[in-house]
Amino acid sequence: MPLPRRLIPALVPSCLLALGITLAPATLANGNACPGAAPGQWQATDGTPISTPVLLSELATQRVVLLGEQHDRLAHHRWQLHTLAGLHAHQPDLVIGLEMLPREAQPALDAWVAGELDETAFLEASDWHRHWGFDPGLYLPILHFARMHRLPLLALNVTPALRQRLASEGWEAVPSAERHAITPPAPPPAAYRDTLSEVFRAHSSGADDEAALARFIDAQLVWDRAMATALAEASAPGRLVVGLMGQGHLGHGVPHQLHDLGIEAQRSLLPWASLSCEPPPRELADAHFLLGDEAPFEPLAPPRLGVWVNGAEDGVRVEGIGPDSLAERLGLEVGDIILRAAGQALRRPSDLTALVGRQPPGSLMPLEIRRDGSVWELLARFPSASE
């Protein structure tokens, strides 16, 4: 989705170029330069610099703007906060949508914005740790921004149980009221199916399991459609709805579903590490914000088991195993049912994510596994800080 042609004249002579200032390329520690990569700069999909005031003014005229993220990157959430502040200055009627929570958490979001809950009470009322396995501290500055300005926060997601039900049973089998009146997703472009297939096979030792691949793609489409529906329902002329979500939902994901729902006035934005010298994924966003070296400020990477899991009747089912992962070294296999972790029964994938995320370096976590009717225990040892 290229930027509209009326923006093109502003792209070439950016603010700095108009003043006769040449943008210096970013330089790595080894002295190599990344041509055209200046931290703090917006770029169009062709790499042309964009004036920040011009870009934000244009974005404020849209119905929906999507801000992509890598969930565990602190710099990405800082960028989202700064971008939200700029957009709010141009469009006071602003709504912030969150992939992180399902619709069942909407009352907690409303109470938070109204000032009725403190942080601890909000995290408990929204069931944050069960719904979203990432540190709430990454998102709290954005939540406080919304609360300070009394901006509505919107739960975009649905529960994993509903995603699995729709993906496995089909849309006609689930009454409209039980699926929040979400309509079936538009068929995805072939390129999106190919991308999702690559993601699945890159993270799954069961690369030939076509049934698991189909479930993975169907679940992703449910996810995209659910978020697009919530964004479309909240949009209105003169109002800007900004959705925060993982960058994998951009491109042919949520934007494609928004188009199907009649939302043409939309844009997608993404931060990118300018010092990597790698071009950003042009197909995912209409513009990119170039980050500098934020590595010293990033938190330590959370512990990972290295599995993709889906809900099961009495636990979570292993759908894929990452290569050279802790799960692979443990001997987990596709099709295993993880019944318990750290002594706690698992009801949904986020239960496992949350438990793994709380494991300190060097700790041991018992897993109760069922395979072919037999149940036994494995002991997962997470690497120590030195490892």
TrEMBL record:
InterPro entries (alphabetical): Cofac_haem-bd_dom (IPR007314), PDZ (IPR001478), PDZ_6 (IPR041489), PDZ_sf (IPR036034)
PROSITE patterns associated with the record: PDZ
PDZ domain location: 305-373
Sorted UniProt keywords: Signal
Secretion signal span: 1-29
Protein name: PDZ domain-containing protein
